[in-house]
Amino acid sequence: MAKPIKAVLVFLCMISLHSVNTFGLYEDQAGLFDWKQEYVGQVKDFHWDQTPSQSGKKVFIASEKNVVASVNVHDGSIAWRRIFEPSTRGRIDALLHQGSSLVSIHAGGQFVRSWSAPSGSLLWEKSLSDDVDSRASGFFIEKNKKDYLIIATSGTLYCLKMNDGSEEWKAELPHSDTIERWYVTERSDNSFIAIGITPGQRVTITSVSSDGVVSKTAKNVPAPWIDIQTSCIIMEDDKHFVCYSPQTHSLQTLGLDNVTVFKQTELLEFPLTKESKIEGLVPGLGSAIKFRSASDRLVFMVLTPQETFTVHKVLEKTYSAEIVNFAEKYILLTLTQADAETLQLTARDQSDNSEIIDLAHSIPFAHYHGPPVKMFPFLFSKKKDSSHRPGCKLILVAQDFSIHFAQKSKSDENKSHWRREEALAYILSVLMVDLPVSENQAKFEDEFGTKEEDLLAMFYKRLKAQFSQLRGFAITLVDRALGHHHHHTKSIDAIEEEEPEEEDLIRDGFNLHKIIVVATAPGKIYGIRSHTGKIAWQQFILDLVPFSRYDTQKLHLVLQRSTAHFPHEPQCTVLGVSQKTGNGLLVSFNPVTGAILPRHQSQGHDTGFKVLQAEMLVDMDSDFLKGIVLIDDKIKFHVYPPTSKSILQESRMQHFFHLINPDTGFMTGYRLLPNTDGEIDIEELWNLDLQKSQQTITGVYGKRAIEHVHSQGRVLGDRSVLYKYLNPNLVALVTEGEEQQQSSVSKGPTPFFSIYLVDGVTGHLVYHQTHKRSKGPVKVVHSENWIVYSYFNEKHRRSEIGVLELYEGKEQSNSTAFSSFYPPPPPLVLRQSYIFPVPIYAMEATVTEKGITSKNIIIALKTGGVLSLPKALLDPRRPVIPTPETMEEGTIPYVPEIPLSTEALVNYNRSVFNVDGVFTSPAGLESTSLVFVYGIDIFYTRVTPSRMFDVLKEDFDYLFIGGVLALMIILSFITQKLAAIKALKRAWK
Amino acid sequence: MEEPTQLLQFLMCLFLFNWNSFGSATELDDYSDRPEFKIEGKVFVASKDKEWTYNSRVVVDGGEYLGFVRTDGSFVVHGVPSGSYIVEVINPNYLFEAIRVDITSKGKMRARRVNFLQPSNVKTVNYPLEFRERGQPNYFQKREQWRLTDFLFNPMVLTMIVPLLLIMVLPKLMNAADPDTQKEMQNQMNALNKGPSLPDASELMSSWFSGGSSKKAVKPKASASSKRK
């Protein structure tokens, strides 16, 4: 008898499970609320497309983010893009392009891949070496009308056939165990000369014959100053090897034929900076090199017969210079600053130093890109003109990683102009800021602003506000009647293609449109309109670099004053490190307009000390500004802005903070103590030793300050309430380590990780759990009374998601406020773990205005999807055997594997890869949470975890409902009339 | 300028040092001459168009190792050390089943079905791997459409139609039967109609505009101002 009941229960539960899972988009909603932008990253290698028919229509870019991409020249869109592993395996050592061949060399020659230039599909792939730390290089040669590829890995020189990648010959190079990089060139007699670099020790010179026989004699020349990054070059005559040694401020020249020491040329004529390096050879000047002295100074130097260098020409105030061989002429193109927002491209014929007017071009270039770093000109002769005048397509790479394209057009409108903001592939922190309300509404709000006003004044204000509203309404009516739309005259500076529309930056009815403020690793700050994805403003802080420790980079971004305090402008602050001094660097700006505070203009505010910890205060000062507490490396206390200090002294709340030192494994709690003479002392309160010898701290996760918890407990099946343990000071710590196996069949150490839940005020350890034979990377979401974390289970070789939920029990100890000093009894910790079939990049919980809506967890999957997973599926109260009571409560029966449905992927087929993080923000609608996913792609959408319960669906059929209603009314009138007639007839009977 | 970078280097060294102290010496040796193998296979998609190969990636262990699909559908993932991996083919427009590949330290390959629940349960599949298209993913929900049949067979509508039939048809059936009952019915109808029924439209209008005109005139204005909020 029990069996059928159970079956029915299971069936019902399955139905409920199904209903939980169905949060999808409708097909016509695709692209309505979401957008995706693809990026490439900082340019490392660059080629103009040379495919005969497609010449100059596309460019090929290899980037620091391990991406090879082809970009359309006419509009800057990506034609195709290949993303490689973010680890060293994917590092691109070289991107080679000639004719229609495109070859990328990765990770010291571990991979050599040949791509089809038009489509980006893989033609062939070779694995040559497994020494990933070395650098490989390569070039094309032609032999017997066939193309070959020469590739030098750390130990071997390969000659590959270009058409299928098969090996023609290979030559073992000497000293392969120490040499990390070979410079190879082909000599005029088709033999090869190879120069190998052993960092810190020597260079080795050997030669290889044209059919791959290595000469027996390898020459070693000591060079203790050399390393793998040293800029070196083989001269045009194939007889000299030149390096720039920054330590000795000199050029080191080595004759390859017979000389056995480097000859030194001191560089005294011009200053040297950290940007100094050899940029390349100069064609048409004999044996000459182009040397960059500073970001705006280039020097051409010629090799003398005495094997030293003399200065040929110094190009002052020049960002970039290239000598191009075009139509049998050597043309020198230089890029100089014309004025603050324009660059000037000048072309000179090298033979007679005459200027070529056709190529001269002034390029609008905004100051917020920093100086241009490199330019890639492409000269062509205009076919339409009979005079065959030269034209020039120019691509610039600026210091903020942006890529600019400029081409001189006939009508001088600079229409052929685009840029790619590649810094957006390096987002480190994100904030979503409300847009300000319109002026009228601000006035409306002003009515209730001050309390001390009398009745009459308030009445007057109200009248005034309503009058202005009426006037505004009349104006819009008149405008509409005249058919007069706000025609924006085309903005004068053509750089600003975004066309800032002031009226656009106003809050919409449901506060769904926000400004997404992002801070990026190169020091660029952007404001992005959330509904279009367009850049509203940008600022480039040259000195700003992120905090970087253990391979992770961080920038602190906080909102000090929101848009709610109308006469005061909103204020955002970025905290990073000053590149010059290494001290903390603060930059405050208005997040809506992007205007930097006047005293922070362009450089930011150097704090004058190294910042260890920064936290924003909860209390606002008289200007509604929340101060930032900064702790320096000597555990001294600072406040920014200094005026906020009074808040700390006056406030009755005590302030606590904790520092975590991954080097020592200690977590230390402190208290701020205002003393009698107006200063604030720091008192150390407690210490927690997390056993550095066994494990390292890899992550600390607190709760989000903006989060509201609507419900204090959960109603169980028997109508009793299980109260949540809502400690706002709870911090989750993750430590990872390895333990030696006890058993004799040792397979080496096994990894483990632990989660500690610590009260951040008292240092009280609330809960601790260790997962054995499991490893990170552990991603953690900490919200309300639960913690969700993902990890890899080594024992079962699968990804899993664990969940901890903390409850006080059936009684709540203090319903008004939580105090860490009088904590409730140790919480009840419920836990469960689930198999998650796909590995995870990052995850975050949705957050809504009042916390009424149920939570979803937004998970960026490594398969490219962004999954919106209901928290109800990750509930530790999911019963293994469902009972009527659990049914009543509405929990879903336990299934070990989390089902993934493609309908729950909020980014449908717009896959995002190499995701760094997910950011969520509440909107004005309680049902809606905004999601921003960033990495090499950026993706924005909105999710409704409990459906749109507070607005009518947008497919709501007004016409149908209205029609039915009207029909009903009409029918009722008609039937009434008919009934009256009938009654009359009956009366006459 | 040198100081911070040096500090950083120092920190990095410290970290690296600690890292090394974790791993045993044997593992470090292992790493340097650990043999590396390759995973080979082919992807089969029904579509004739070669477009799908461009945005397909072969992902081993969630992107730790990557492979790219050639135009004929074949792929090779080079440089994979021995171990157990999950190989997936990712394409936003097609679904494929993942395959687990085990590589022994001698380079013997074994491919089997992925079974997360019972990892020890082995069901081998062919090696070199064969990925076959398993349909196209459905990212979107179907919108509910209004259809007459849906409307008619809706239980609510059915419950309304049946009583309606009873009211309309039954009196007709009873009509011929008995004059007494007919009279009774008529009385009932009269009783029903006697009470104040729906007010006449003209009456309604006149009562509105005569009685409460001053009150109602304000109303549209107020609603207009609230609309603009």
From TrEMBL, chain A:
Cellular component, GO annotation: EMC complex
This protein's record includes keyword Disulfide bond: no
UniProtKB keywords: Endoplasmic reticulum, Glycoprotein, Membrane, Signal, Transmembrane, Transmembrane helix
Domain spans labelled ER membrane protein complex subunit 1 C-terminal: 783-988
Transmembrane segments: 958-979
Family matches, as SUPFAM superfamilies: Quinoprotein alcohol dehydrogenase-like
Membrane topology summary: Single-pass type I membrane protein
GO biological process, any: protein folding in endoplasmic reticulum
Record localization: Endoplasmic reticulum membrane
Signal sequence annotation: 1-22
Domain EMC1 first beta-propeller: 25-422
Assembly: Component of the ER membrane protein complex (EMC).
Family: Belongs to the EMC1 family.
Family annotation (PANTHER family): ER MEMBRANE PROTEIN COMPLEX SUBUNIT 1
Name of the protein in its database record: ER membrane protein complex subunit 1
Classification of source organism: Eukaryota, Metazoa, Spiralia, Lophotrochozoa, Mollusca
Automatic annotation (TrEMBL), chain B:
Region (Disordered) location: 190-229
Keyword vocabulary terms for this entry: Membrane, Signal, Transmembrane, Transmembrane helix
Top-rank taxon: Eukaryota
Transmembrane segments: 151-170
Cellular-component GO terms for this entry: EMC complex
ER membrane protein complex subunit 7 beta-sandwich domain boundaries: 48-158
GO terms, molecular function: carbohydrate binding
Subcellular location: Membrane
Pfam families: EMC7_beta-sandw
Comp. bias (Low complexity): 210-229
Signal peptide coordinates: 1-25
Membrane-related topology note: Single-pass membrane protein
Family classification: Belongs to the EMC7 family.
Protein name: ER membrane protein complex subunit 7 beta-sandwich domain-containing protein
Species per Swiss-Prot/TrEMBL record: Biomphalaria glabrata
Gene name for this UniProt entry: 106054717
